[in-house]
Each structure stands twice: as C-alpha cells, then as structure tokens.
Write a structure and sequence with these properties.
single chain, alpha+beta, Glutaredoxin, Antioxidant, Horf6, Chain A, domain 2, three-stranded antiparallel beta sheet, 6 helices, elongated, binds benzoic acid
C-alpha cells in the first residue's frame, strides 16, 4: 500500500477536563448557545460527516432510537455536521419517511465549520470538508469528561457510548473507578490508598475483594 504524506500540523483539540468551548449555532431545533443549553444536564455532542450518507444514517438512527436511554441519564443529545439547515431538514424528513425514525434532537448546521474547528472535529488528513465521527461527553458544569474520535468509514457503537456515560456518572456519584468492560451491576474499584496508614488499613479490610492494597473491588 502506498503511504500518504501527512501534510497538516496537529491541531489543538479540546481535552478531557477542559471547559467545553462555547458557541452559538443554528440547529434543527433553533439557535443554541452551548453554555446556556441543558442547564444541570449532561450533553452528548457528536458529529457526523454528512447528511444523506449511509453510515451516518445508521448512526443518527441509533441515537434517535435510544434517545430515551440518554434522557434517563439526564443527558441531551446534540448532533452536528458541516451541512446547511436545509440539508438537515431534508435528511431528517427523508429518513422519517423511509424508516419511521425521527431525529428529535438538535442537529447543528455547521456550514462555516466554526464548531467543527473548535472541537477538533475537522481533521484535514482524514477529510478537509467533512467532520470525523466525534463524541464529546460534557457534564452539567460544562466540563469535557470523555472524548471519542472515529474515522469516516467506521460507525460508532451505541452500547459503548451509553456504557461510558453510565460509567462516568456512576464514578462521580460513588467516588469509585470502573474496571475493564464495567457495566451496571459489576463490582467497582475503590480508589487506591494515598499513604501508608491508608495502605495498612486497606490490607486489613476484609469487606472488599482485594488482589493487593492497590486493587480492591466492591459491590455498589
Ligand atoms: C457515510 O456515512 O457512509 C460516510 C460519510 C462520509 C464518508 C464516508 C462514509
């Protein structure tokens, strides 16, 4: 396979722990300003490359079909692509007519690429005109808590998006960490001791499942 030269310098992209960059944009549900939107709720902000394309249609339908699960996690969905409002409306209507699935959440019409550039969704060595498949998990304080980037040719996994959201919220609520493949009902990890006293205490703690002082699990 021929190797392609990478021509574009790495961009600065929003990172985990950063304040989510603010913006005001046109969406299929009217204008939204991120920092004023969905007060006291989580936001899953996600981009897709283009309206009227096959993988994107499956993904958007996936978000739409599982919107109630996001609502149950106190989470609002906000989609985005570098398309006009007219294209968004046409696509939403077309998918509804063809499949019965309705994209009942705001989709940003990022025709000037303002939000795509702000969130590192435009990755020019992948595409200079279409956003990659990004997902930003934004907490009620508008802090970025988890970021996913997928290329144009691979759709995301909705189970994993929901699992990661539940893991983040459970970690916050109980001050615990989540092990590999954690899902609701599994044991969680107790934060490791930070000094010798805590270490010795942990070594004598028979209430948790202990591998050693630094890896102890418990039921919630
Ligand atoms: C798609 O959603 O199918 C797609 C969009 C842009 C590039 C490649 C695939």
């Amino acid at each position: 396979m021929e190797t392609q030269e990478i021509t574009t310098a790495p961009a600065i992209i929003p990172r985990i722990g950063d304040k989510a960059p603010n913006f005001t944009s046109k969406t299929t549900k009217g204008d939204i300003t991120l920092h004023d939107y969905a007060k006291d709720k989580w936001i899953v902000l996600f981009s897709h490359p283009a309206d009227f394309t096959p993988v994107c249609t499956t993904e958007m339908s996936g978000f739409a079909l599982r919107k109630d699960e996001f609502t149950a996690f106190n989470t609002e969905l906000v989609g985005l692509s570098i398309d006009s409002i007219h294209a968004h409306l046409g696509w939403v209507n077309n998918v509804k007519e063809k499949t019965g699935v309705y994209f009942d959440f705001p989709i940003i019409a990022d025709i000037d690429m303002k939000v795509s550039k702000l969130y590192g969704m435009l990755q020019p060595n992948e595409s200079e005109t279409a956003a990659v498949r990004a997902v930003f998990f934004i907490d009620p304080e508008k802090k970025i808590r988890l970021v996913m980037y997928y290329p144009l040719n691979v759709g995301r996994n909705m189970d994993e998006i929901l699992r990661a959201l539940e893991a983040l919220q459970t970690s916050d609520k109980y001050d615990v960490a989540m092990p590999l493949d954690w899902k609701k009902g599994d044991k969680v990890i107790i934060p490791p001791p930070k000094n010798l006293d805590e270490m010795n205490q942990r070594l004598n703690d028979d209430t948790c499942e202990r591998t050693d002082f630094y890896l102890c699990k418990k039921e919630l």
